[in-house]
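Quick board copy: two proteins, each given as sequence then tokens.
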Amino acid sequence: MEVAGVPSRAEGDTSHLRDGVARDLVKHAYLVGDFLLSSGSRSKYYFDKYLFETKPHILRPLGKLLAAEIPDYVDRIAGPELGAVALATAASLETGIPFVIVKKASKDYATQKLIEGEIHPGERVVVLEDVMTTGTQAIVSAEKLRSMGMEVLFILGIVDREEGARANVEAAGFEFRSLFTRGELESYLQKE
């Protein structure tokens, strides 16, 4: 994938890796039941981010897939707490690009920062997110980074639930990308 005509750091074909990760996401993190989502809506399925982000055999290849999407000229990777911190770590280890953690709220002690890690105005950043339904948390994080003078190149999610995240992210003025869509991953249910 390319950003502004500059190729990402992808080396070769990642389709085999991508297929394996898709299978693992469905096998280990796709739950069926009655779930209340953070958006307030109910769903008959749920992608449990902690069931894929805490397993090294899934997180390591996810880091490689994320790295393949991050252009060489990115200065920082951002991971909103708590869910995307492991993703930012994996992508940072794979790319060598430093990451920052975007906190939901600052603490009233120590440094009281909203962004943990080193940042400088004008730096280019990619915001990572795990499972995106409405995109609200990713948008809030991107806006915090923008308010600190950083240039948010795009928001990259692992799973787009295809329930409005893309439209909301783009309406907020950010480019939206995802590694997988709900529909794509659900096609793997038939293969299991």
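And the next:
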Amino acid sequence: MMTPFLDDPLADVMGPLESARRGVATILHAARSHLGMDVAFISEFQEKVRVFRHVDAVAGRSPLQPGDISPLAAGYCRRVIEGVLPELIADTSKVPAAMALPETHAIPIGSHLSVPIRLASGRVYGTFCCFSFRPDASLNERDLGMMRTLANLVAQQLDEELESERNREDAAARVRRALDQGQPMMVYQPIFRIEDGGVEGVECLARFELEPRRPPNEWFDEAAAVGMGVLLESAAYRCALRELQSLAGDFVIAINCSPQAIVDGQLPAALHGVNAQRIVLEITEHSSVENYAQLRQALVPLRAAGVRIAIDDTGAGYASMRHILAIDPDIIKLDISLTRNIHRDRRRRALAGAMLEFARHTGSTIVAEGVESADELDTLRELGVKEVQGYYLSSPLPLARLGELLARKYAPSRPAGRSM
């Protein structure tokens, strides 16, 4: 299995980031609503500009939008930090320094509250501000105290947001570094016919030979979380297709493809010049599918060209059955969780038998994964499984060793109507 693409990939990168942003927005809205102000915002100080990161306002009345930029020297924010303007201004008409600013008249600003946002490092991030278009004589020191308290809460949320953004940037940099170094590397696990021991095909599996050392699924999960999943996946299957062209034979090439990569539309170009009838796209059981209709539509031209579709990891969870019913695959691959110790477990045998019966009625073919013993292989043979893969038969092999195996085992003549 090359690319699991979990339903919530790399939640430890994306979850805190979204949570922090929602938390800041909630605090900002609460402050503006409680004080009865027209606009509340959080600005970030950069070298020469301030960026309005978050804005909350009475509907249709905001002169500011998130992402707006203004010179740092303009407006109230920097002057409040420097002490030129007070943090609390109930009536700007009574503060000459405020009346001297063009923004006071252009917006207009009648009352204003602003406090600094200090991060855990001590750095001033920017300001937490509220203003109204009219003066508000009810504003007092208690309101200012509340603003300071909320600014501290905002600072905590921003620290989390900044850390999450750094984590995201680090993750993207790791994926880019992997791609720059020609990763992933590919290995190939043979798929054998039980009947004669011939090699029916190979499943292409990604491996990463760089730091940090971790399972391939974690690399793909991380790439998906930072919007680079399809890019990394494309690098993997393009590498496999390129390498396998050097080997003689018409064995099947099974590549793992996430629904996202299929819908993305890059596959037809990658398959140009390849005999599509040799290609099997394995959609892993763990892959989330947001729109089955869109996925089915993306599969139409691939199937028309001769590509066959497999559902991977069947038996590992409920999602596989949803995939099977929605996609109508040509091949159903039984997960190792179902094949392991199947000779000792009547429930596993019953479920495998049910899947074989289902396949018979739907015209699909069953392939058993994860075969690790002679007893498991014998039981699968007795049940009627025709094609298998697993460490008992062969571990995933680098290209050179695969070539040696094919030279010994590959049988070019096959019965008509082969499945893989």
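Board note added afterward: Residues 1-14, 411-420 have pLDDT under 50 and may be disordered.
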